[in-house]
Amino acid sequence: MLQVNLIRQQKAWVLERLAVKNFKDVDVVEQVITLDDRRKALQSATDQLLAQRNAASKEIGALMGQGKREEAEARKLEVARLKVEIYRNGEEQLVVESALQDALVKLPNLPSELVPPGSTPADNVVVREGGVRPMLPESAKPHWDLIRDYNIVDFETGVKITGSGFPLFRGQGAKLQRALVSYFLDFNTQAGYTEYIPPYMVNEATAYGTGQLPDKEGQMYYMPADNFYMIPTAEVPVTNIYRDEILKEADLPVKMTAYSPCFRREAGSFGKDVRGLNRVHQFDKVKIVHLVHLSRSYEVLEEMVAHVEKLVQSLHMP
């Protein structure tokens, strides 16, 4: 989440980076500043009222000791009035702080200066390519035909059990899925990643912690009776292991890996790009998460890419 001071002090730069990310609701930036101004004004007013109340409270004892009962009673009334004002300010400040928090979570993290502007896939910059692109014969079959031919994934029974987008793996398909999960986890742990089995449901604070909320709730499965969300990826609970904690530099890096089933509503998905095992509502994934000092972020990103590249190459896939 962006810091208010960053938004205030570098507003133009923040707006420029948000434009690179094609973020449209830029009025939120001004809203944050306005709410923060009001928060500061309320805090300042409250501090002044507290000082007046404390001074008046001290005077009451002195006046009573001097036998000035009427003046003491007048000070008591003043203290009572100040308490009411302080309470009202406090109530308004809670509302303003809540609104400020709601506005801040609507702002996405800012893209790096290295990220080029663009709005379509055609604007993407190819960083590197590797391997040999296979030339498929005309007789090549798509994966949704192959899995039916080999009877390793059953979509129809999945529909009967649950609904569309919940595939049923069977026989060699189930065995392959299980074997790949184990292979990926072993590969990661041998590279120094600590394995976790996270909860598959998370609370609201966790969903906010990795940015699923407030604007992606439509893609998540929600259980209102418990106010829990089914995870869309293991990255959500694993990253939140260190939510609200400050790691010492000596504790870094933290390397984590986890397998989990993932649940996504994929509302609005349709077309040829979502056939077969593309864009299903439940799927398996093995994640790696690396917490490092900011100064090493790009270096470690390259390390992670190289690690995953080596993993894929070890499967001898084209």
Structure write-up:
This protein has 318 residues and is mostly helical. The protein has 2 domains: 4-104, Helix Hairpins, CATH 1.10.287; 170-314, BirA Bifunctional Protein, domain 2. The protein has helices spanning 4-9, 11-20, 27-65, 69-104, 143-149, 155-161, 172-190, 204-209, 235-239, 297-314, and strands at 153-154, 168-169, 194-196, 201-202, 222-223, 228-230, 254-263, 282-291. Strand 5 (222-223) and strand 6 form a beta hairpin. The protein is elongated, with a radius of gyration of 28 Å.
What is the string of helix and strand elements?
A: HHHHHEHEHEEHEEHEEH
Strand order of the largest sheet: 3-7-8
Rounded mean pLDDT score: 93
- CA radius of gyration: 28 Å
- Give the N-to-C terminal Cα separation: 39 Å
The total count of helices amounts to 10
Q: Strand tally, please? A: 8
Number of domains: 2
How large a portion of the residues is in β-strands, by DSSP E? 5-15%
Assigned CATH architecture of the largest domain: 2-Layer Sandwich
CATH topology of the largest domain: BirA Bifunctional Protein, domain 2
Q: For the report, how would you describe the main beta sheet?
A: 3 strands, mixed
| SS-derived structural category | mainly alpha
CATH H-level superfamily title of the largest domain: Bira Bifunctional Protein, Domain 2
Helix share, percent: 40-55%
SSE inventory with pairings:
Blueprint: H1 4-9, H2 11-20, H3 27-65, H4 69-104, H5 143-149, E1 153-154, H6 155-161, E2 168-169, H7 172-190, E3 194-196, E4 201-202, H8 204-209, E5 222-223, E6 228-230, H9 235-239, E7 254-263, E8 282-291, H10 297-314
Parallel strand pairs: 3-7
Antiparallel strand pairs: 1-2, 4-6, 5-6, 7-8
Helix pairs in contact: 3-4
